[in-house]
Structure formats: structure tokens, C-alpha cells
């Protein structure tokens, strides 16, 4: 039995278990970097919010010998735990003046997400797409995001430039930059004999630590960091959640080494859906410009 057949069986069994007042839909969901997940979307007919329960791990349990009805019971328990119980008020989303102050962005790889990006009014930096979203919070459901689509701009009668003016203004307010020395994030580094190969490194993310890699593209961040460190900067994409910023004038390795390191980490450590880029970026303190670091470049 493949995952699609398993999903169809789960759809019918979960619907039987929950009754006619609930609609259950099996869906393939394309996530970041083209990763396809499989989920059941379970909605009470009178409600506007539907929990999404991913079943890929449950399929692995089935292949490992777990019986169907035991998995069905697990899904029902998850649904009962996360079902909203009443409608969530999303009426604010029809009014751009109410949405504007809740706008931020995340970054993903352009080339690995071409299909997703067709419907999104994204901005581009090098091989990265800046994807705008609205940060929402519900007392019962917690924090979530609504990705801004081209259709939303038409409904709001808002231009691309007006959207991004508000994104850049509000992202640093609602998801501010956070940073710390690399050794604070990875204590083991304090014990490693780096011998000057890697100098002082800083991890940049946002206050939620989720989809925070884009903070290095907040207005003024690279300029202020460069002035504080009195150096041009190298930006290494750790994942979609954070980047590593290094003062380039203290580097004792060539760019080729950095590229090799990034590609190796992306292949062996970072989950496929969280890989940002195999490239390394460079901010020039003299010109104030930033782009992809060339492997043959002298730094």
C-alpha cells in the first residue's frame, strides 16, 4: 500500500469515526523546496478553521506494523485536541489597514520553489525570494501566518510597492532581529580548537526563531552590523530559520572553503525542507552593496 492509498483509507475511517458533521479531505501539500507532505484536513461543517493533520509519519508507523484502527484512533485524538470548537474571526483580513501592521516576510530559495512563487508577490535578493505574510494570533490556536498572494492585492486594491513598503516597515517591529555569538547557540564550539579558521561568528534570526533567516535583509541591518564590527560581512545561510554573520576581515580561509562547508552541511545536517541556499553572501562596507560571494573573490 502506498501513501496515496493509505491516505484514502484514513479519510474514510476517520470520517466514520467522527460522524457526518465532519468533513475529512486527504490532500497532498507542497511545502518549502518542493517537499510534498500528505495530510488530512478535518473540518466541522459549521466552522471556518480546519486542523491539518500530517500523516507521513503515521504511514511509516503503518509500514512498521501498527494496525489501521490504532492509527485512526491516534488521528481522532489529535483532532479532538486541536479542534477549535468555534469559528475564528478572520474578518480583519479583508481590510488592508488592519493587515498592514501585521506584515513580515520569510526567505526561501527561488529555484527550488518556482511553482509556489507563481502566486506570491515576492521580492528577490540573489537566489532568495522574500515571501510576505501576515502574522495572526488566536488565544486558543496560538500564532500562525497567512501567506500573502497576488489575489489578496487585487482584493485590497493595493499595489506591489505599497505592500512591500508596509512589509519593510513592520517586519522589524513584530518579528525583531535577535542575534548572539555562535558559541552561545552551540556551546561545544567553546571547546573546539578552531585555530583561527573561523573567527567570531554571530547567529541572526527573528524573535520567534522560526523562518528568521531573512532578518539580514531588514532595512539597515547589514549597514549597522558592519559599522559595529568595523568590517565587511560574510553571511552564511544556516537554514530558513537563521543565518551566520562573520566579519570578513578576520577570515583565514578562502571562499571556496566556505562554499564546501555550506554544501556539506545542507546535505548532511539540515532537513531538506529547511535548506535555504548553497550560496554565501557578502556585504561590502565600502560600497554598502550585498550579493553572492564569488568563490574566486579575495576577502
Quick gist of this model?
The chain is of the alpha+beta class. It is 32% helix and 26% strand.
Structure description:
It is a single chain. This protein is α+β, with helices and mostly antiparallel strands. The protein has 3 domains: 3-82; 91-174, no CATH class; 177-292, no CATH class. 32% of the residues lie in helices and 26% in strands. It has 10 helices and 13 strands. The chain has helices at residues 3-18, 56-63, 68-82, 96-99, 114-117, 150-156, 160-174, 182-185, 221-229, 255-268, and strands spanning 22-30, 36-44, 52-54, 103-109, 123-125, 128-138, 142-147, 177-181, 202-206, 233-239, 242-247, 281-283, 290-292. A 6-stranded antiparallel β-sheet has the order 8-9-11-10-12-13, sandwiched between helices. The longest helix has 16 residues, at 3-18.
Low-confidence stretches: 188-198
Helix/strand order, N-terminal first: HEEEHHHEHEEEHHEHEHEEHEE
Mean pLDDT: 87
- Please give the number of β-strands: 13
Helix content: 25-40%
Radius of gyration: 22 Å
Largest sheet: 6 strands, antiparallel
Number of domains: 3
Structural class comes to: alpha+beta
Specify the overall morphology. Answer: globular
Strand order of the largest sheet: 8-9-11-10-12-13
Strand content: 25-35%
* Helical segment count: 10
Distance between the termini: 55 Å
Amino acid at each position: 500500500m502506498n501513501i496515496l492509498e493509505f491516505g484514502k483509507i484514513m479519510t474514510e475511517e476517520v470520517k466514520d469515526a467522527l460522524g457526518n458533521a465532519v468533513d475529512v479531505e486527504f490532500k497532498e501539500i507542497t511545502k518549502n523546496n518542493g517537499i510534498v507532505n500528505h495530510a488530512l484536513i478535518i473540518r466541522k461543517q459549521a466552522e471556518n478553521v480546519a486542523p491539518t493533520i500530517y500523516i507521513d509519519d503515521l504511514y511509516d508507523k503503518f509500514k512498521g506494523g501498527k494496525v489501521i484502527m490504532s492509527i485512526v484512533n491516534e488521528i481522532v485524538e489529535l483532532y479532538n485536541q486541536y479542534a477549535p470548537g468555534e469559528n475564528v474571526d478572520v474578518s480583519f483580513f479583508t481590510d488592508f489597514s488592519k493587515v498592514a501592521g501585521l506584515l513580515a516576510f520569510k526567505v526561501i530559495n527561488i529555484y527550488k520553489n518556482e511553482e509556489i512563487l507563481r502566486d506570491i508577490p515576492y521580492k528577490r535578493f540573489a537566489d532568495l525570494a522574500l515571501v510576505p505574510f501576515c502574522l495572526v494570533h488566536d488565544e486558543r490556536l496560538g500564532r500562525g501566518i497567512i501567506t500573502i498572494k497576488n489575489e489578496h492585492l487585487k482584493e485590497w486594491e493595493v499595489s506591489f510597492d505599497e505592500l512591500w513598503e508596509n512589509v519593510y516597515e513592520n517586519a522589524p517591529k513584530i518579528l525583531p532581529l535577535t542575534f548572539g555569538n555562535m558559541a552561545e547557540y552551540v556551546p561545544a564550539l567553546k571547546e573546539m580548537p578552531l585555530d583561527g579558521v573561523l573567527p567570531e561568528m554571530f547567529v541572526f534570526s527573528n524573535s520567534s526563531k522560526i523562518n528568521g533567516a531573512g532578518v539580514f535583509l531588514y532595512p539597515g541591518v547589514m549597514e549597522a552590523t558592519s559599522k559595529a564590527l568595523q568590517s565587511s560581512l560574510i553571511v552564511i545561510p544556516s537554514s530558513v530559520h537563521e543565518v551566520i554573520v562573520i566579519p570578513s576581515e578576520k577570515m583565514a580561509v578562502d571562499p571556496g572553503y566556505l562554499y564546501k562547508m555550506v554544501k556539506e552541511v545542507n546535505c548532511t545536517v539540515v532537513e531538506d525542507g529547511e535548506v535555504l541556499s548553497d550560496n554565501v553572501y557578502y556585504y561590502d562596507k565600502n560600497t554598502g552593496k550585498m550579493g553572492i560571494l564569488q568563490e574566486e573573490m579575495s576577502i
